[in-house]
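User: Show me a protein chain along with its predicted structure.
Assistant: Here is one chain, sequence first, then structure tokens.
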Amino acid sequence: MNASGDRKEEIIWRDIPGYAYPYRISDRGEVQQFRGGAWKTISVRVTRRAQVILRKTDGTQRRLGVFRLLDELFNDGYARKHGLCVSPKNGVKSECTLENLTYKTRAEIGRESWSRGSRRPVMRTDRNGNVELYPSVIAAAKASGLTVQSLDRRLYHGVLDPRGYRWKVLKM
């Protein structure tokens, strides 16, 4: 117990087998490597997914998703055994905890990503403050001469538009 009388939750660790160095992961998504007589935290990289890079026994590197590791080591590979995908429950990829782990089918993920902006109105603002509205991401991409993927990067991934436009998906 701590000074306020609350019980402190204990962190649960599981070893990650089959790699050149001893690795472990906690139920809170922290991955560590044992080197130099101490456990050192490995940084989690968040791109399309939260992932860590571990060194295999043959010296090559392997990228592993943190949510996939949590599923394999704490839930005995439930997603793999049932043909499901693992993802964050709250949608925030950087919050890699066991409590934030959920399972989805590929079809559910596809529907979510497609409907994310395909039916929502999009607003484009230029440097002078002029606003133009489009009924969907696809319509905005066609009208502005961009691909849907490049507009998606501007809307959801923080890529700046070189022409000075600011893009925003409006809530319905």
